[in-house]
TrEMBL record:
E.C. code: 2.6.1.11
Entries under Pfam families matching the protein: Aminotran_3
Annotated pathway: Amino-acid biosynthesis; L-arginine biosynthesis; N(2)-acetyl-L-ornithine from L-glutamate: step 4/4
Cofactor, how bound (note): Binds 1 pyridoxal phosphate per subunit.
Lineage: Bacteria, Bacillati, Actinomycetota, Actinomycetes, Streptosporangiales
InterPro entries: AcOrn/SuccOrn_fam, Aminotrans_3, Aminotrans_3_PPA_site, Class-III_PLP-dep_AT, PyrdxlP-dep_Trfase, PyrdxlP-dep_Trfase_major, PyrdxlP-dep_Trfase_small
Protein name: Acetylornithine aminotransferase
Keyword terms, alphabetized: Amino-acid biosynthesis, Aminotransferase, Arginine biosynthesis, Cytoplasm, Pyridoxal phosphate, Transferase
Binding site for N(2)-acetyl-L-ornithine: R140, S279
Ranges annotated as spanning the membrane: none
N6-(pyridoxal phosphate)lysine, modified sites: K251
Amino acid sequence: MSNNNDIRHRFEQAFMPNYGVPPVALARGEGTRVWDVDGRQYLDFVGGIAVSSLGHAHPALVEAVSRQVATIAHTSNLFLHEPEVLLAERLLGLLGAPGRVFLANSGTEANEAAYKLALKYGRREGRGYFVAAENGFHGRTIGALSLTGKQSIRDQFGPFPVDVRFVPYGDASALKEAVSGDCIAVFLEPTQGEAGVVPPPDGYLVAAREICDATGALLVADEIQSAIGRTGHWFAHQADGFLPDILTLAKGLGGGLPIGACIGFGEAGTLFDKGDHGSTFGGNPVACAAALAVLDHLDLDHVKAAGARLRSGLEAIDHPLLKGVRGRGLWLATVLSEPRSAEVQRAAAAAGFLVNALQPDAVRLAPPLVVTDGEIDALVAAFPAILTEAAQ
Ligand SMILES: *Cc1c(COP(=O)(O)O)cnc(C)c1O
């Protein structure tokens, strides 16, 4: 039995059956390259789901985390530490707007904080419901799940304690219709990630900002997948030309270490009173040191150029299974003419590339933000044969 099969078998015996168990067990990585437990090498165009922003084993991340864990690994929120302050200041500086930060350990927790902030606002103002987008994804804990617009993962865990109304993503008039003076907050991803890397039509997010301004609803931008350089901008909303009231971050922020952030701008930054929220691990010194290393070493110009190279390379492929390419920066989906993404993922792995069958007809590419031109060219060169293999 191969090491991959052995680990997979043992995983299935020891773990709850909530994941479709993947066939590959990764042992180590370096930059965009990873090796599985049988010694096979792959180019990683998944990036741990848009997380491994500096790639694998980046020397700066290794150094920052090693130094911090050898100095002080944990303080709890009963004591302050400098890395958390440096990180919060750094994020606010990149955002260029006055705000306040709460640090969590994951995306769903960042959204829980946003949800509780919004609930406080709603109670104070006597407002009663939330609006979120169909097919949107905000996380798996009950609060974030209640805002997640995917019935298959949501409905069996309802009813939820709060009224959430769903609107089609990208439709500004449907949003306008749904948001009244009784609406607490609107939760939106600037590009829908899990739905298939789906950017909205131009002007949609600015319209959402205007609708919220006109009604007094808070606008929450879930940038858990879209921020920290993924689109070639620090934050996707900066390119979209709007500022949310609340912003949530996670995935790429820690470069692989678990960290999330909820940032409130203006009045939304001071809605929590002492005792309203907290986390034992949130803002952990090691995770903060990792995030600071990520922010120090990301090169947005590289992301823009590499993203354009990947996109134009894929767009130049003429293949009956490839219908198009969508997304932003180094965050793309190849859209298939038939629902064969699982076959594409399998054929890609056999050819030495990790890609993600995100939707039946969409394959996500979210490589480390340090992916090289040569690595991009290798994927583009291999992709037609991968498609042909998958079409059979
Ligand atoms: C991944 C994701 C989440 C959930 O993050 P977790 O760290 O898995 O809890 C929430 N929102 C968006 C947009 C995401 O992509």
